[in-house]
Design a protein that fits this description.
Elements: H1 3-35, H2 42-61, H3 70-103, H4 111-133, H5 141-148, H6 162-184, H7 186-196, H8 198-203, H9 208-230, H10 242-255, H11 260-280, H12 287-299
Helix pairs in contact: 1-6, 1-9, 1-10, 1-11, 2-3, 2-4, 2-9, 2-10, 3-9, 6-7, 10-11, 10-12, 11-12
C-alpha cells in the first residue's frame, strides 16, 4: 500500500468513525439543548441498541440466502440495514418510557438530581443487558464479512471495508435529514423554538411536555441506530457504552453545547484527526480526542458554534 493509499484509508476510517460519533452525539446534543439534561445513560442506550440489533439482525440474516453472489450480497445488506432501522424504532418507546417515568419529575431541579438519576439509569440498563443477553461479548461477524464481500472501492484499486462506506453514506443521509427536519418542518421549528426560548414557546401554545417526550425519543432512536450500525465490526459488550458516552461529551463540548451543526463538525474533526494521530503515533488513541478539545477550547471557549440559537 502506497503512502497516498494509506492516507486515504486512514482518512476514510476517520470519516466513518466521525459519523458514528455524530449519530451518538446528535441524540445527546438534542436532549441537552432542549431538555437541559446531561443524560449519562445515553451510552447505555447505544449499548442496548447493539444488543437489540444483535438479536434482530441475527434473526433476519438467518432468513435470507448466504451472501455468495452480488444479488444475495445486496439483499443481505438491505436486511442488515432493515434490522438497524427496526432496532432504532424499538428504542423509541424505551426513550418515551424513560422520559415520562424518570425525567419528567426532575425538570427544573438541581443538576445533582439529574446526574444521580441518569447514573442510576446507566447501571440499571447495563444490568438489564446482562440479564437478557448474558455477560459474554456478542458479535455478528457473518454480517460484517457478507457486506464487505460487495465490491465498492476495490473497483478503484482501494482496499477498504464496504460496510464502512455504507456507514459513511448513511451518516450523510442522516445529517441531511436532521438539518432538513429542524429547518424545514413545523415540528422541527417547534423544537428549535423551545430550545431557544422555552417560556416564549409555552406562551404561544407549544405543548412543551409533548415536545420533551418527542426529543428524548429522538435521542434514543439515534442512540439505538448507532448501536445497531456499529455492531457488525465490533462486539456487543456490557462496557461498550462508556467510551462512546465520553467521546460524545467531547464532541458536544467542541461543537458548542446544544448545537447540532457543531456536533456534526466536531464529530468529523475528532474522527479524522484522532485517526491521523493514531496512524502516526498509536499510543495517542486515548489522548487525541481530549487534546483536540483542549486546543479548540483555548481558541473558542464556547465551542465552534455556540448554542442552538446559532444553529441557523
Amino acid at each position: 500500500m502506497t503512502g497516498l493509499e494509506t492516507f486515504v484509508t486512514h482518512t476514510l476510517h476517520g470519516i466513518q468513525y466521525g459519523f458514528v460519533l455524530f449519530l451518538i452525539a446528535s441524540g445527546l446534543t438534542i436532549v441537552l439543548g432542549i431538555l437541559d439534561v446531561l443524560n449519562l445513560a445515553h451510552g447505555e442506550l447505544f449499548a442496548l441498541g447493539a444488543y437489540v440489533g444483535f438479536t434482530i439482525i441475527g434473526y433476519l440474516t438467518g432468513l435470507v440466502a448466504p451472501p455468495t453472489t452480488l444479488s444475495t450480497q445486496l439483499v443481505f445488506l438491505g436486511v442488515v440495514l432493515l434490522g438497524a432501522a427496526l432496532t432504532a424504532a424499538i428504542l423509541v418507546p424505551v426513550g418515551v418510557f424513560l422520559e415520562t417515568t424518570f425525567f419528567k419529575p426532575i425538570y427544573g431541579r438541581d443538576e445533582v438530581y439529574q446526574i444521580v438519576l441518569t447514573f442510576a439509569l446507566l447501571l440499571i440498563i447495563k444490568d438489564v443487558n446482562k440479564l437478557i443477553w448474558g455477560p459474554s461479548p456478542l458479535r455478528l461477524q457473518d454480517a460484517y464479512g457478507g457486506i464487505n464481500s460487495i465490491p465498492v472501492l476495490s473497483r478503484v484499486g482501494l482496499t477498504y471495508p464496504t460496510y464502512n462506506v455504507v456507514i459513511i453514506v448513511i451518516g450523510l443521509v442522516t445529517v441531511a435529514g436532521l438539518f432538513w427536519f429542524f429547518n424545514r418542518t413545523k415540528t422541527g421549528r417547534i423544537i428549535r423554538a423551545t430550545a431557544i426560548n422555552r417560556e416564549m414557546a409555552t406562551a404561544i401554545g407549544v405543548n412543551t411536555g409533548r415536545t420533551f417526550t418527542l426529543v428524548f425519543a429522538l435521542g434514543a432512536f439515534f442512540a439505538g441506530f448507532a448501536g445497531a450500525l456499529a455492531l457488525p465490526p465490533r462486539f456487543a459488550s456490557l462496557d461498550m457504552g462508556a467510551n462512546p458516552l465520553v467521546l460524545s461529551f467531547v464532541v458536544i463540548v467542541i461543537g458548542g453545547l446544544g448545537s447540532l451543526r457543531g456536533a456534526f463538525v466536531a464529530a468529523l474533526l475528532v474522527g479524522v484527526l484522532s485517526r491521523w494521530a493514531i496512524w502516526q503515533y498509536p499510543p495517542a488513541e486515548l489522548a487525541a480526542p481530549f487534546a483536540i478539545m483542549a486546543i479548540v477550547l483555548l481558541v473558542r471557549p464556547e465551542g465552534l458554534f455556540g448554542t442552538w440559537g446559532e444553529m441557523g
